[in-house]
Amino acid sequence: LAFPLGWGLFELIKYRKKNFIAVLGLVSVGLTGGIGLLELDAGWLAIKEAAIPAIIGLAVLASTRTKYPLVRTLLYKIHKTLEENNRVEEFEARLLKASYFFAGTFLFSSIMNYVLAKWIVVSPSGTQAFNEELGRMTLVSYPMIAIPSMIMMMLIFYYLWRTIRRLTGYTLEEVMAPHLAEKEKQRNKSSE
Known about the structure:
- About 80% of the residues lie in helices and about 0% in strands.
- With about 190 residues, it is mainly α.
- Helix 3 (about 45-65) packs antiparallel against helix 6 (about 90-120).
- The longest helix has about 40 residues, at about 130-170.
């Protein structure tokens, strides 16, 4: 509970905003502990494991129908250049496709979490065997879920990056850390 609670409080105090992912993390940890303490059927753990990434994926997917899609919000700074180059429509099509891919990574995670929980956690909750199986499931989830999901997200990022580079000419540093890129440009001008 310490990590999502600490992260959520940090965001709330420093930036005065609620962090949806931190709240979801708190709920997830609380549900896992609650299932064990209340000695509920292990099937509920499988449902909980599938529900958390499914909620995130659905939120990403739902955001594509709003005024501020999640992926576009992250890339807002390049929009002006796209307008100047008359490439907004092409970028929007690619961005929608990337949003679908991104939501798909959470669908993959959701399905795999459910399958792993059903396969590995078979003992009654609240028992020592349940806790051991829960630990084993967490360990197995890294190579079977976390690493493939990370690779998929890196491929999506690369797909978006290639699109941005082609349509705007921006370097990676100009998109990800514009303040650093600006300082570098100023330093180069002053040295000339």
